Amino acid sequence: MENEIFKALADPSRRTLLDLLHASDGQTLNELCAPLQMSRFGVMKHLNILEEAGLITTRKVGREKLHYLNAVPIRQIYDRWVSKYAEPWAMELISLKNELERGIPMDNKPRHVNRIAIKATPEQVWQAITDPAQTSKFWFHCSIRSDWEIGSPLELWDQQGEKKAEGVILVCDPPHQLAMSWKFLAFPDAAGEAPSRMTWEIAAHGELPGVTLVTVVHDEFEEAAHTAKILENGLPIVLSGMKTFLETGSTLSGN
């Protein structure tokens, strides 16, 4: 897979497409064709190569097919080839994007859709998300605490006893779906914002036995721009850390 990723990134037109998606997420084929001096067929060919390498994903909204940056492979390459040579504080913060089939109007589509494949069962993933002892292994040394009943409070605490974030459980359907409101307390710019929403969707991979797909959608952040930016940068690291923890029992350096 690494060879496919490096091959896909080697072409400047494909790097331009990734830059376009990074700048504006969830674009149609027509929107991506406009900045490139290339035929529609040529752009489709490049998009197919990027999708086969896992660097972009798609979802349908009505009749439109939207393309999203999926930086999971880049994150994993970074963890393997770059982070061990760099100081932890210099780690690049990136976001992943992915296909999510749901009937959301075009003018209200989520901007942050994150997914990762983990060699674990849905039950193991659910346990990792809801067990404070396990969340502390990959959520920036913080524990998520709740009784996981709909309407119950949720809190994120660090190891120094400071509450970093809070919310309310909106949906709890183990081990398939967990939705919560989310409000940061420890970041001054985000502390005064309205709560946004974070939804975890967990499903066994349709083609790979023993592999679970974890999708995290952050939306309803029209009045929480700083929260959106923090989670856009942080959730990929959380997901990558959870994958490492569940598959190897170890943690990412600096997480």
TrEMBL record:
InterPro entries: ArsR-like_HTH (IPR011991), ASHA1/2-like_C (IPR013538), HTH_ArsR_DNA-bd_dom (IPR001845). Keywords: DNA-binding. Signal peptide: none annotated. SMART domains: HTH_ARSR. Residues 1-89 form the HTH arsR-type domain. One of its GO terms (molecular function) is DNA-binding transcription factor activity. NCBIfam families: HTH_metalloreg (NF033788). This is HTH arsR-type domain-containing protein.
